[in-house]
Amino acid sequence: MITTLTLTAALLLTGAQVDTGTKEVTFRGMTLQIPSSWKLKKSDGGDAIHVLTGGCPARAMECRGFWLLGPRGIKYASEGGPYELEEPYHPSTGVTECTLDKHYWSEPQPQKPSVSGVRPMGAGHKATYRQWQIDCHTPKGKPTKVGYPQKIWHLPKSKILVVDEFSTPGLDRIFKNAVWK
Q1: Position 1 in a domain
Q2: In the chain, how many domains are there?
Q3: Which residues does 9 contact at the CB level (< 8 Å), separation at least 6?
Q4: Residues 6 or more apart from 105 whose CB is under 8 A from it?
Q5: 35 exposed, middle or buried (CB, 10 Å; 0-12, 13-18, 19+)?
Q6: Which of 43, 46, 47, 96 could form a disulfide with 70 if both were Cys (CB 3.0 to 4.6 A apart)?
Q7: 13 found inside a domain
Q8: DSSP for the chain, written as a single string
Q9: Within a domain: residue 164?
Q10: Which residues neighbour 134 within 8 Å (Cβ) at sequence distance 6 or greater?
Q11: CB atoms inside a 10 Å sphere around CB 174
Q12: What is the pLDDT of residue 94?
């Protein structure tokens, strides 16, 4: 135990990096420190990263996590057209499955965001932020008790769109501490 404490103190004093249980992910000039247990799944030739933060619930449409999207994801973010600030993220041109329960639909889409504002994304960068309350319905259109907030951060100059439909814990803090090249 004393050897471990001595080694840790020596590493800290020399400036060497100590394993803090985090790893870096860099996307379009933005570097984030994320928990080392999270996994990255790249798609669209590297223009999108699905950051997997947990398991894959059996009824869910996808695994827990959030998306980092680049220009292609922004171009096709709203009914097959470009991202619209005052609309939820909905890249499909049809009815989509509910993220939390693929047996339900996420239609109709809400008309207004439940939260609007600006959020810090590292020093000198601010993202336009929208949160939409998505309520899920049966295939016949009946409301269910299933719903979730869809959180969107948009950085138009950096061409980054972040979509989180699982209320990823600590994500605001991770983005606030982003480092830019």
Answers
A1: no
A2: 1
A3: none
A4: 95, 96, 97, 98, 136, 137, 138, 139
A5: middle
A6: 47
A7: no
A8: -HHHHHHHHHHHHHT-----SEEEEEETTEEEEEETT-EEEEEGGGTEEEEE-S---TTSSS-SEEEEE-HHHHHTSBTTB---TTS--B--SS--B-SS-TTSB--SPPSS-SEEEEEE-STT-EEEEEEEEEEEE-TTS-EEEEEEEEEEEEETTTTEEEEESS--TTHHHHHHT-EE-
A9: yes
A10: 88, 98, 99, 106, 109, 110, 147, 148, 149, 150, 165
A11: 19
A12: 77
Residue pointed to by tokens 């798609």: 43
**Tokens 């980092």 appear where?**
68
Share of the chain above pLDDT 90, in %: 79
Query: For residue 49, is pLDDT > 70?
Result: yes
Q: Write the pLDDT tens digit of every residue in 90-101.
A: 988 778 889 999
For residue 35, give Cα distances in angstroms to 11, 52, 75, 87, 100. 21, 11, 29, 30, 23
**Domain interval for residue 172:** 21-180
Q: Under 8 Å CB-to-CB from 30, ≥6 apart: which residues?
A: 121, 122, 125, 155, 158, 160, 178, 179, 180
Structure tokens at 13: 């004093």
